[in-house]
Amino acid sequence: MVGAENVLVDDAERLARATGLSYLDLLRRRSPSADFPVPDAVVLPADPEEVQAVLDVCVRLDVGVVPFGGGTSVVGGVAALRGEKASVIALDLVRLDALVSVDAESRIAVLQAGVRGPEAERLLGEHGLTLGHVPQSFERATIGGFAATRSAGQASSGYGRFEDMVTGVRLATPRGAWKLGVAPASAAGPDLRQLAIGSEGTLGVITEVALRVRPVPPVRRYEGYALPGWAAGAEAVRDLAQHHALADVTRLSDGDETEVSLALNAGLKTAVLRRYLAARGVRRPCFLIVGWEGTAHDVALRRRETTRRLKASGAVRVGKALGESWRHGRFAGPRQRDALLDRGVCVETLETATYWSNVDELRDDVRAALTASLGRAIVMCHISHAYETGASLYFTVLTARDEADPVGQWQRAKAAACEAITGLGTISHHHAVGVDHAPYLSAEIGALGVEVLRAAKSAVDPTGILNPGKLI
Question: Which residues are FAD-binding (predicted)?
Answer without folding.
Answer: 67-73, 200-206
